[in-house]
Write the structure tokens for this entry.
Amino acid sequence: MAERHPEVTDKKTFTYEEAAAMLPRVQELTSEAWAAVEALPEEAVGEYQQIVGDWAEALIALGIDVKGLWLIDFDNGSGYYCWKHPETSLQFFHGYEEGFGGRVPLT
């Protein structure tokens, strides 16, 4: 039998409360990475890639789906709570098929 890799096969799902509680940490990591990237000279491609890669790895380690640059999703089992820097709170949802363009406000 093949060895099981939990980090690959076990998908983390979040309640809204869990995602909202984790958001301040996500915002902190993202703001730090964003500021570091903004401070780089345009030709520092390697450093840019390192910063963005480290940011993505840190969020993935928390069970969060990284969907793009400064864009993340919290899987809730029926779709995603969606957040993009610099939004101040967790305000949007979209289904698995809709993607970012299909975001609807959480009201």
About this structure: The two ends are 46 Å apart (CA to CA).
